[in-house]
Amino acid sequence: MLSGVNPAEAATRAKSRRGSLIDSTRMRQLIQQTPEQLTATVADSGYRVEMDLYAGRFTGAELVEVALSHNLGREINSVLGFCGGNLGDQVRVFAARFGYANAKIVLRAVFNEVDVDEVAHNLLPVENEDNGIWLEIIKNNSTLHEAAGNMREKQYRGAFKSLLEESTLSDYEDALDRHYYSNALKAVSGKGAALGVLRSFLKSEIDHRNLLNLIQGAAIGMTSEDRLSRLIIGGSLIPKSQFIAASNADLDGIVDLMRRSTRFDASAFEEALEKSKEMFSLDPVVLWLQSNQQAVLSRMSYLHPVSALPIIHYLSSKVQEVANLRLIVRGREAGLEPGLLEAHIL
Amino acid sequence: MALDIKPTRSELINLKRRIKQTQNGYKLLKMKRDGLFFEFRTLLAEMIKAKQELTEVYRSAKQRIGLAIAIEGGLKVQAVALAVSSKPEVDVKVRNIMGVNVPSVFGSDLNPSFEQRGIGFIGSSPYVDEAAEAYGNLVEKITRAAEMEATLKRMLEEIEATKRRVNALEYKVIPEMEEARDFIQLRLEEMEREETFRLKRFKNK
Predict the structure, then answer these.
(1) What is the structure's pLDDT at A153?
(2) 3-class SS at B99?
(3) Which of A55, A312, B120, B141 could be joined to A174 by an S-S link, Cβ 3.0–4.6 Å?
(4) Which of B66, B71, B121 lies at the smallest CB-CB distance from A335?
């Protein structure tokens, strides 16, 4: 049950905003533009305020990327602003992941004693007011333990409870990722059809993460114990009871494990895995998993119209728009083939 | 050519000894030149292969970093780089190939493993990891190619110097010494004939 806000109004506002996003046809047309033309086009597509904000310090693709990130942060805050109560809590499940990414930057900067000005230059730019608190942590803490203890939100502090003072940076980062998913699953654990969809979305995300990590772990020669310790609890394809079997399995074994699920297209996954082996890159697997995830997200646009789902769908579409624009601008600058860019536009 | 030498028997003996020594030196230098040239050719073949590999690895690394920056964003790639605390270091030592001092390059942390990169595994991006690995591989290849290139350059210089020495011995030093030897021999024979003639004249008187 949603309380404290009119979900129909919030959903309508989100749908209305979704209508102003760049559609996929236009996005594909942008690939043909030069990097200079792209900067102007991105500014005209609703990012002018942020582009103007950073234009004095950055140029080219970097300007576009910093402006896109700032705009995304602003948009998420704006959406959360009109989603109060339970609705806000559910939308926050999706939005919180960006905060976790910032927490990782802070931990890395503290760990390697990176100058706060260096981080404030572009990673957590001072122009974005939300970054002030993160930069303060970098400035005032010299160890990971201290920095973790001084994280603003209680949710982050909880992530590090099980860590020791001598834990490494990677332990801290892994703890953050685990904590995000466990918190997110807790937040959508109630009854209701919309919550069920959100739960299955999160579970599929955990499954995809676990699958990728199992494959990558095998590729870099990680021991089965290490792979086991890196699996995230909460997925449905690889439940906790099958963690040991999954971490001991080779690539064929992982595919066999996936075949047991009727909801997973194991043969398409196997095909992507074969392509990956040929290319010595996980790109085909990532693309395949992302397109699956996108299919789950697009269902949210029409299922349960008066719930958090249309709002999360809008936010994910916005994230995708930012990712696609960044892909085109950065990709064009790096001289990547248009065909390659088009294949990665979702 | 004017020869400024004393036409004495001891000088002839000395000269003959020096010619023998020089010829021995010439033979050794010639062998060194041939040996160096053989080494050079072997290394050159390896170098050509290494350069081809380097070009291939560079193309792949460039493609992978381009893709990582495009997909994950330049900011995320920079953020991942914040976690890296080990920096690649290169130490140059000297080793000897057939009397030629060539550099030997040793590197540490040139291609750090995933653990050495310091970031968490669970939320890591395969694109950034692949780019980091490709660049680590590239740095290793560059170091190896730099060592080979410097070695080849030093060997080429040494081959040139040895060739000059061999040529100088073959076409200048040894012929001049042989000329001097012939001159002394001729002069001594002449002096001997003069002495014989002088003695005959003295006997006839």
Answers:
(1) 65
(2) coil
(3) B120
(4) B66
Question: CA nearest B112 in A: which residue?
Answer: A220
Q: Rounded to an integer, what distance in angstroms lies between the CA atom of residue A222 and that of residue B122?
A: 13
Using CA atoms, how far residue A266 sits from A253, A286, B126, in Å, is 12, 14, 21
For residue A318, pLDDT beyond 90 = yes
In B80-109, the residues whose Cβ lies within 8 Å of chain A are 82-85
Task: Choose, out of B65, B71, B135, the residue to mutate when testing the contact with A (most A CBs < 10 Å).
Answer: B71
Residue B76, pLDDT > 60, answer yes
Asked whether the beta carbons of residue B82 and residue A114 sit closer than 8 angstroms, the reply is yes
pLDDT at A269 over 60: yes
pLDDT tens, position by position, A151-199? 866 677 778 888 888 889 999 999 999 999 998 998 888 888 888 888 9
Tell me how far apart the alpha carbons of residues A160 and B132 are, in angstroms, rounded to a whole number. Answer: 28
Domain CATH code at residue B121: 1.10.287.3240
Domain of residue B95, residue span: 18-183
Domain ranges of chain A: 1-83+322-341
Give the chain A residue nearest B123 (alpha carbons): A177
The rounded mean pLDDT for chain B is 92
Contact A331, B70 (CB under 8 A): yes
How many contacts does A have with B, using Cβ atoms within 8 A? 121
Q: pLDDT category, A2, cuts 50, 70, 90?
A: very low
Backbone φ and ψ for A79, nearest 5 degrees, come out as -65, -45
Please name the member of B63, B69, B115 whose beta carbon is closest to the beta carbon of A330. Answer: B69
Residues of A in Cβ contact (< 8 Å) with B122: 173-174, 177-178, 209, 213, 230, 232
SS3 annotation, B38-84: HHHHHHHHHHHHHHHHHHHHHHHHHHHHHHHHHHHCHHHHHHHHHCC
Q: Which tens digits make up the pLDDT trace of B138-169? A: 999 999 999 999 999 999 999 999 999 999 99
**Residue of B62, B67, B85 with shortest CB distance to A112:** B85
Q: Decide if A172 and B120 are in contact by the 8 Å CB cutoff.
A: yes
Tokens of B12: 């002839």
How many domains would you assign to chain B? 1
- Tell me what percent of chain B is helix, strand and coil, each rounded to the nearest 5: 75, 10, 15
pLDDT bracket for residue A48 (50, 70, 90): very high
With a CB cutoff of 8 Å and minimum separation 6, the contacts of A75 are A17, A315, A318
| Mean pLDDT computed over A116-133 | 91
Which residue in B63, B82, B119 has the most chain A C-beta atoms within 10 A of its own C-beta, making it the best mutation to test that interface?
A: B82
